[in-house]
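Reposting from the mailing list since nobody answered there.

I have sequence plus structure tokens for a pair of proteins and want to know whether others read the tokens the same way I do. The first protein:
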Amino acid sequence: MAALTPISRTPVSFYVPMVAAAGAFAGLLVGTAQGSSFIGIVVGALLMGALAFAMTQLVTAEKPVRWALTLLLAVAGFAMAGLAAGIIGALFGWFFGWFTFWLFEGRYRAYVAPYLTAGQVLWHYTFRVICGAILVFLITPILVVMPLSFNAQDFFTFTPEMLRFDPAGYSLKHYEDFFTNSDWQGALANSVKIAPMATLLSVSFGTLAAIGLSQQHVPFRRAIMAILISPMIVPLIISAAGMYFFYSRIGLQGTYMGVVLAHAALGIPFVIITVTATLVGFDNSLTRAAANMGAGPVTTFFRVQMPLILPGVISGGLFAFITSFDEVVVVLFVGSAGQKTLPWQMFTGLREQISPTILAVATILVIISIALLTVVELLRRRSERLRGMSPA
């Protein structure tokens, strides 16, 4: 396939202001870090606009200019705040070099339909920038917490040693405290005892409910579905308060079984939704064929239905497990000191003792969540292949 070629070179009045606007945003970040946002915006806009004009009008070789800009901003960043700022400056230099020539050469038109107007092209890329900004906004707290968990000091901020990438500024002592401290290990043990049992109940009841509600002859299906998934909609504090008053009357408040049942109630809606979505493409003629061949309802369920809806069942179970493992509000109302889970211990650490070990625990939980969500995505793709919705 032939390589895509630029459509046309754009006028200076278009790409220089665009690069200047991007430079203003970068200047906002740098200026905020230096204590002057307004000066950062002005300097960033003027500097990047001038560099964009110079790179495209005064020099013809693209690659040497881009490398020179990367080196220039890397040196400037290193001179301002050390190695970390130098790396960030190099990334800025690479991006602005690419962005300038991407606009100047008209490459932004290469991957869109040629009949789109200038406004449509602008919205095409603006929409993607907005989505990217939202993604960065959502994952930034995670990206900040993870390196802080290796802080050698008992601080919740980056130390000068960490910013200089000095090995003395990093340590595994917070992870060591998590694995050796009896309070943290007791909380982890409680979470491991509660989450699997709650997941088992959620999967059992949620799967049966989804299969039952998928039958057309069931009366009031929509009302029953709304009631079953209401724990996802009702504010958690209201559900927790209701569970507290109900369980205290029947003797389950402050017990292991009470916490398990409460977490199971929170996980059932996830199982119902995922299994129901899987059953949308299920061929009911298979169950009728199994019945015609003499198979009973139980045999049909385990030999015919379950293998086909298993990806949805496992996905719902993983969501239910994550919900139980990360939940803190309900367990504060329903549980007691004997059921102190890992999130409860983290909440206590933030409120009472400000323990930096929380950062290490948060990093571990993030890694576990990423692993489980990866499994969910793999199961989703497998389910689509089994139902013929995607190529093998």
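The second protein, same order (residues first, tokens after):
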Amino acid sequence: MAAIGTMNGKTQAAAAQWDGAVRLWLFFVAGLVLAMITVGGATRLTDSGLSITEWQPILGAIPPLNDAHWQEAFAKYKEIPEYHLVNKGMSLEAFKAIYWWEWSHRFLGRIIGLAFALPLAVFWMLGALRPGFQWKFAGVLALGGLQGVIGWYMVKSGLVDRVDVSQYRLALHLTVAFLILALVVWLAFELGRPEIESLAAPGALKTLPLLIVGAIFLQVVLGAFVASLKGGLVYNTWPSMDGTLFPHDLMAIEPWYHNPFENPVTAQFNHRLVAYAVVALVAWEAWRTFSSRVATRETLMSAGLLMLGVLGQAALGIWTLLEAVPLSLGIAHQSCAAILLVLAVRHLHVVSRGS
């Protein structure tokens, strides 16, 4: 038993020497995922998501290379309802513009898969991963593969009877993207801890940071419904919604429980409410941290960054709404939501791990 313990200790010590390299790789992957979320936002805002009507995981990496290929891709697009009901008469050059957005989104997804899978295989064979982390990384890789399937599942919903994708499938696709980002950065933060660490914080101290992360995920889901239903294009006023806190068409759809998912007004209203809740929760956490006599410098800095991040994102959201969601602000709002999630995950890690 002692020999086994000594062997495990040596294996763990050997793997710990690679922690810096593994963390660098994870942060690189996280940057790619953030870029993917950004390009995905641009693809949605430019209504480009249905421009490629097939899913070819391997051959799809090659874009049209000549005029004949472009005409073939354009002909396939002309077969779906979006072309006939929204873009009838679109020129080939206009089609190319939306095609490149969707192709870039899919190509970046392939790059992320390779950037995660290949180094993971190398680190695994070198014994560079801490014991127990191998299967955590494998789980993230599997989730990334599932995300590709979900992406096509989303696109497929807009190819037959709709001129856009299902808001439910869009919400699933975006939420999984944010989940992958959160898992990757959490693992990177975990590898930044020494093997011998201080005692973790009591459960009560972890509850609020965990609630903040959960609230941000809820806000991402609601934001996906706002985006899919184009809820940012109604009631472009703040703090009121066309002069009132409760617009008359807030529950216009019957039965009533369809409104949060199918009524753009309700979608925007809910997104506003949860935004206020997130700001309040982060402010509470910041006040609690800065008033504590035992808070570490790292915890104070983490809480401060999270407070600045949530205020900046709230201000950006208001600006985006008032301007009726121009492309630049819409992209920035989605990207900054991902950055805010990273700050919240980091704060949760600082508090819960007591590092």
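Reply #1 (J.P.):
I read it the same way you do. Confidence is low (pLDDT under 50) at residues 1-7.
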